[in-house]
Automatic annotation (TrEMBL):
InterPro entries: Endo/exonu/phosph_ase_sf, Endo/exonuclease/phosphatase
Descriptive protein name: Uncharacterized protein LOC107485367
Gene name linked to the record: LOC107485367
UniProt xrefs under Pfam families: Exo_endo_phos
UniProt domain Endonuclease/exonuclease/phosphatase: residue ranges: 5-222
Amino acid sequence: MIVSSWNVRGLRGDGKLRMVKELRNKYKLDMVGLIETKMQVVTRFDVIRIWGNDGVGWEYVGSDGASGELLLIWNDLVFSMNNCYKGERWLCVKGVMLKRRFNCSFILVYIAHNRTEKNHVWEELSYIAGLCQTPCCFLGDFNEIVHEGERKGGTSLNRSAEEFKIWIQDMNLVDMPLSDHKFTWFRGCSYSRIDSALLSLEWLEEFLESRLRGGPRGLSDHCPIIMENRKLACGPRPFRSLDSWFTHEGFLRMVNEEWKGLGDKPFTDKLKALTIPLGRWHKDKFGEIDKKIVKFEEEIKRLDDMVSNGVYDGTMEARRKALVTCCERWYVRKELH
């Protein structure tokens, strides 16, 4: 099962929606947790727009004007929810991974900046973990570091970070190392690793090959984090399509002609054979859009890496904002093409 969390800093607008869809398709996500959606109410229509199809389950914590805005969406053929618990700063779904019949709980978190509020949330999460009585995965924006090197200029942990570290130890959780990113949050010349995935020992006993990596942050100042268990990545690849195909003039005509040309082959064989002309058509019609999006994301990451290594001047933030604006325009173009 492949799971991601991302502080998207607002989910309104076609650019942000396309950004999340790209993440889901690129990493073949089975579950995604979105933080700071800035949505007071979430409907099935909203979820389908975000996820791309109707085979989903979801739960959310709406905005109260000061905190929260959490949304957890999952493929209901992969995970089945049995129960749900909610707090102002966290969202817990308890259920079973269907393929392995593994009972577990996912807890999406968005922790406050205030130390007193943080300690209150640590107590709530301890209670919820005890209530669920299952292996747990805590993931999200913790607004706190665990090690000195996870924040710019960090040489020691403050009191709040020490208390967070003690809570992790008391809960017997493992802070998963991030394999390909040093930091997950950037703003100007500031940066830190405040987005994390914490796994219980029982979870790691079941999934010894769990790993955590980062994705392109695109239009947000946070990078998404992606946790995957390679043992579950097996079986045939599903047939996938893009929403933008169906709004492109000539797509249905091309499919109809190719389908007729395949004759009387069995349905599944025709679907498999259709992937070849579909791939050629997608590359011809959308290849430049994909290349431009990747180019902008790579340039944003290059600037982030420069900031991480201490290279910063007054022009870099302006360049990054310009790149984000261009990236958003191409996301929207791909959505509406």
